[in-house]
Amino acid sequence: MRLVFAGTPASAVPSLDALLKSGHEVAAVVTRPDAPAGRGLRVAPSPIARRAESAGLEVLKPARPGDPGFLARLRQIAPGCCPVAAYGALIPQQALDLPEQGWVNLHFSLLPAWRGAAPVQHAILHGDDITGATTFRIVAALDAGPVFGMVTEPVRSSDTTGDLLDRLAVSGELAARPQPAEGVSLAPKITTEDARVRWGEPAIAVSRRVRACTPAPGAWTVLNGARIKLWPFADVTDDPDVPPGHLRVQGPRVLVGTGTRPVRLGDVQPPGKRRMPAADWARGLRLDGPGAVLG
Q1: pTM to 2 decimals?
Q2: CB count, 10 Å around CB of 206?
């Protein structure tokens, strides 16, 4: 079958690779337009665009998948099906109607749970023990089409969004079945403000927020008006008394209080500097006791 694949981030590359190894013809790839990326925020093609170009595939980058020029080119290619993995834009009905077998999406949740743009982040943020991936046919309603199959994956206590995305995959050939009406939950896009740590929350919720927002958009907090990027915390085996948001340096440990027990900072990245262990960062700040407060 002739295919046109749609995807954007690195998590979609394994799906494209699998299709390239299949007996189907991947005629073209659809991805989001080039965007600023990296520390220098230089405009760059998406990971899927780079992989497609290395494979010699035609790459389509419509500003919107409803653009007339894009729809005209899709009609010319005449795909039998359009597989999708993390494309990042809603497919309009005029595009959905073009391939005979429709658009088939790989969504990283156990639908109908976590419909939306950020299912893995929300699974971690809300403390789910199990998540997975679902293949389904796209319809006009958000992530509501009939399901072909799904796989499950446990959420480990140390998982970041990046870790979990690396493990999620789907396989097999099953008949499409309607999703149940019960159990629907929504997973809207995680914003930069969502990634700001609330130190008054319980430690488990603070940890989930940091892991859910790693690697993107990146968890953060503020010290003296400067934004500090955070990575997942290290274990704390004791329970010292540290007020919410307060920093306390104990040898190699940099602790921050939460609404319950303190957490131990892992890596941090101050503005304009490289990522570094929290102990190195605190040493540079000369934090030798309580007093500094994150907010």
Answers
A1: 0.81
A2: 26
Higher pLDDT, 25 or 292: 25
Residue type, 93: Q
Question: Which residue bears the tokens 């389904």?
Answer: 136
Half-sphere exposure of 137 (CA within 13 A, CB side): 16
Q: CB–CB of 199/295 below 8 Å? A: yes
Q: If we measure between CA atoms, which residue out of 150, 77, 161 comes closest to residue 113?
A: 150
Written as six digits, the tokens of 150 are 């799904």
pLDDT at 14 over 50: yes
Going by pLDDT thresholds of 50, 70 and 90, the confidence category of residue 284 is: confident
SS3 89: coil
Total Cβ atoms within 10 A of residue 234: 15
Which long-range contacts does 62-65 make (Cβ < 8 Å, 24+ apart)? 62/30, 62/33, 63/33, 64/89, 65/6, 65/30, 65/89, 65/90, 65/91, 65/92, 65/95
Strands annotated E in the chain: 2-7, 25-30, 35-37, 42-44, 58-60, 82-85, 103-107, 130-137, 147-154, 219-223, 226-230, 247-250, 253-256, 263-264, 267-269, 276-277
Q: How far apart are alpha carbons 75 and 105 in whole angstroms?
A: 20
The closest of 276, 275, 287 to 250, measured between CA atoms, is 287
Tokens of 109: 């949740």
Q: In the structure, what pLDDT confidence band is assigned to residue 177 with cuts at 50, 70 and 90?
A: confident
- 3 state DSSP class of 237: coil
Residue 254: Cβ within 10 Å count = 25
